[in-house]
C-alpha cells in the first residue's frame, strides 16, 4: 500500500525560513501555550506537508511510533530498527541538527507543568499565574525602557521632574504593611522544604528530572542572569520549585549556558522578569511557544525527511553514480545498435539500462537506495555502529544525560565512535551493517517514493527508446 502518487517528501526547513514562518503566523504572548491546538493546526499553513498522521510530532513525543522495548542484548537490534521514536528524534537533534536543547527543554516543561498541577491548591497559590496582562505590561515597560529619552543626564532629568516628561515613580511597598512575597520564617517542626518535587517523567529512572548528576548549586549563575537583565530577584524560597527554576535558568536561559536556547534578548529579559515574580508554568508562555514552534515546524519536518533516507551518504552517492552509469550504458548500447545492421527490435534492449538507471537515480536523489529498499532495510547510523554487547544498556538507552534536564552540554566530538567512523574506509561505509525498518508509516512513504521512481523511469525509458527506434539504421557493421 502506498500514499498518493503525487506525494512529496517534506522539504528541508532552515532557520531563516522557520523564522519567517513564525513571524507570519506569530501570536501575542497570551495566545500560546503548550499543546495549543492552533499551533498544531497551523502546520499545514506553512507547508509542513509530506508527514502522515502516524509520524506526527505529537505521536513521536507521546511514544506512539513503535514504542521502545526493554533493553537487552537480544532486543538491541530490534530497537535499532525503529527509526522514528523519541530517542531517534533526540539523536537526530544531537548529531545532525545540533539543536537538542529545544527538545530537552520542551520535555522538561511538559514534565514540570504536570508536576506543578499535581501540587496542592495551597502550594500552587504560592506561585501566582503570570497573566497575559502582566506579560503585555512588562513588554511595554521593556519597550519604554529602551527609549533614548531615558538616558538623559541627571541635570535634564531634574528639570523634567514633575512634568509629563519626567521619570514615573514606582509604587513601593510601605514599610508598615510588609511585602506579601517576603519569605516567612520556616516552621521548625518540618525542617527545610525541598523545592524539587519527584518527577514521574518516563525518561528519568532516578525519580526526578533534576536528581541525576551533580547537585551543585546554580543560584550564582541564575543570579547573574537576573542581574544582566536588570531584574531584582527576591528570595522566593516559599514558592514551589524555585531551586529547580534557578537550575533551568543557569542551563537554558543565561548567556553562555550549557544548553542555551536560541532566544532573543527581549524574550530572555521578559522570561526573567516573569520568573522573578512566580514559578508558575505560565511564566514560560512566550518562550515555550518559540521552542515548540521550532520543534514542530523545523526540527520535526527535517527529522522525517532525514528518516526517509535508508542509506548513509556514501551509499547514496554510490547509488547516484550507479544510476548515471546505467543510463550511459543504455545510451551506448542504443547508439551501437543503431549504427549496426541489426533490426529495429534489438534497439529495445537499451531500455534495460535506461529503466534501471533512471529509477536508481530518482530514488537516490531522494536519499534512498533501491537495493536496501527491496529488503526494507536501512543502514545503521554511525553512532549505532560501534556499540558493543557489554555496553548496550548504556549506549543505547539514549544516553540518559540526553533526556536529563540538567545534564551537560550536547557535545559529542569526544565520543569514541567519532574517531572510529572517520577511520572507516569508503567501501566499508558503503557496505555498512543493515537493520529492518519496523515503522509501517515510514515503509509506506518509502514504497511510495519507489513506485514514483519506477513510473518516472518507465516514462523516460519509453521516450528514449522510442527516439532510438525511430532513427534510421547506420549499417556500418
Short note summarizing the structure:
The chain is 50% helix and 1% strand. The protein has helices at 15-24, 37-41, 57-61, 76-80, 86-95, 100-117, 121-125, 132-145, 154-160, 219-228, 242-253, 265-275, 285-308, 313-339, 350-365, 370-374, 382-385, 392-395, 400-403, 416-423, 426-430, 440-470, and strands spanning 377-379, 434-436. The chain starts with 14 loop residues before the first helix and ends in a 7-residue tail after the last helix.
Written overview of the protein:
By secondary structure, this protein is mostly helical. Helices cover 50% and strands 1% of the residues. The protein contains 22 helices and two strands. The protein has helices at residues 15-24, 37-41, 57-61, 76-80, 86-95, 100-117, 121-125, 132-145, 154-160, 219-228, 242-253, 265-275, 285-308, 313-339, 350-365, 370-374, 382-385, 392-395, 400-403, 416-423, 426-430, 440-470; strands at 377-379, 434-436. The protein has a two-stranded antiparallel ribbon. Helix 1 crosses helix 13. The longest helix has 31 residues, at 440-470. It is elongated and about 105 Å long. Mean pLDDT is 76; it is low at 25-33, 70-78, 170-216 and 392-398.
Secondary-structure map:
Blueprint: H1 15-24, H2 37-41, H3 57-61, H4 76-80, H5 86-95, H6 100-117, H7 121-125, H8 132-145, H9 154-160, H10 219-228, H11 242-253, H12 265-275, H13 285-308, H14 313-339, H15 350-365, H16 370-374, E1 377-379, H17 382-385, H18 392-395, H19 400-403, H20 416-423, H21 426-430, E2 434-436, H22 440-470
Helix pairs in contact: 1-13, 5-6, 6-13, 8-12, 10-11, 14-15, 15-22
Amino acid at each position: 500500500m502506498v500514499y498518493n502518487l503525487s506525494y512529496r517528501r517534506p522539504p528541508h526547513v532552515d532557520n531563516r525560513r522557520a523564522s519567517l514562518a513564525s513571524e507570519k503566523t506569530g501570536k501575542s504572548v497570551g495566545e500560546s501555550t503548550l499543546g495549543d491546538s492552533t499551533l498544531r493546526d497551523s502546520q499545514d499553513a506553512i507547508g509542513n506537508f509530506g508527514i502522515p498522521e502516524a509520524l506526527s510530532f505529537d505521536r513521536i513525543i507521546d511514544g506512539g511510533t513503535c514504542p521502545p522495548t526493554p533493553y537487552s542484548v537480544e532486543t538491541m537490534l530490534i530497537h535499532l530498527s525503529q527509526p522514528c521514536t523519541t530517542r531517534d528524534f533526540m539523536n537526530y537533534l544531537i548529531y545532525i541538527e545540533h539543536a537538542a536543547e529545544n527538545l530537552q527543554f520542551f520535555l522538561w516543561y511538559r514534565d514540570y507543568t504536570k508536576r506543578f498541577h499535581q501540587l496542592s491548591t495551597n502550594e500552587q497559590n504560592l506561585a501566582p499565574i503570570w497573566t497575559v496582562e502582566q506579560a503585555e505590561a512588562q513588554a511595554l515597560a521593556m519597550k519604554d525602557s529602551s527609549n533614548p529619552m531615558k538616558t538623559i543626564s541627571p541635570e535634564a532629568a531634574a528639570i523634567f521632574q514633575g512634568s509629563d516628561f519626567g521619570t514615573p515613580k514606582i509604587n513601593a511597598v510601605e514599610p508598615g504593611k510588609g511585602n506579601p512575597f517576603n519569605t516567612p520564617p520556616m516552621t521548625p517542626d518540618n525542617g527545610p522544604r525541598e523545592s524539587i518535587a519527584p518527577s514521574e517523567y518516563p525518561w528519568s529512572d532516578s525519580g526526578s528530572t533534576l536528581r541525576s548528576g551533580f547537585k551543585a548549586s546554580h543560584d550564582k549563575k541564575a543570579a547573574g542572569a537576573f542581574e544582566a537583565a536588570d531584574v531584582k530577584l527576591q528570595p522566593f524560597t516559599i514558592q514551589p520549585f524555585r531551586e529547580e527554576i534557578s537550575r533551568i535558568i543557569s542551563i537554558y536561559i543565561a548567556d553562555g549556558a550549557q544548553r542555551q536556547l536560541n532566544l532573543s534578548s527581549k524574550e530572555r529579559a521578559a522570561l526573567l522578569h516573569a520568573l522573578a515574580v512566580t514559578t508558575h508554568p505560565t511564566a514560560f508562555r512566550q518562550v515555550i511557544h518559540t521552542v515548540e514552534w521550532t520543534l514542530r515546524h523545523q526540527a520535526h519536518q527535517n527529522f522525517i525527511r532525514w528518516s526517509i533516507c535508508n542509506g548513509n551518504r556514501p551509499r547514496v552517492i554510490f547509488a547516484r553514480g550507479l544510476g548515471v552509469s546505467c543510463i550511459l550504458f543504455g545510451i551506448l548500447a542504443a547508439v551501437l545498435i543503431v549504427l549496426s545492421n541489426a533490426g529495429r527490435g534489438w534497439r529495445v534492449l537499451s531500455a534495460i539500462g535506461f529503466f534501471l538507471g533512471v529509477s536508481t537515480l530518482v530514488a537516490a536523489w531522494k536519499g534512498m537506495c533501491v537495493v536496501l529498499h527491496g529488503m526494507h532495510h536501512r543502514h545503521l547510523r554511525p553512532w549505532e555502529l560501534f556499540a558493543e554487547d557489554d555496553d548496550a544498556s548504556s549506549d543505547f538507552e539514549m544516553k540518559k544525560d540526553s533526556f536529563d534536564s540538567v545534564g551537560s552540554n550536547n557535545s559529542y566530538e569526544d565520543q569514541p565512535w567519532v574517531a572510529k567512523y572517520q577511520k572507516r574506509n569508503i567501501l566499508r561505509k558503503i557496505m555498512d551493517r543493515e537493520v529492518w525498518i519496523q515503522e509501517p508509516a515510514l515503509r509506506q512513504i518509502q514504497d511510495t517514493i519507489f513506485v514514483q521512481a519506477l513510473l518516472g523511469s518507465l516514462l523516460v525509458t519509453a521516450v528514449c527508446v522510442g527516439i532510438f527506434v525511430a532513427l534510421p539504421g547506420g549499417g556500418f557493421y
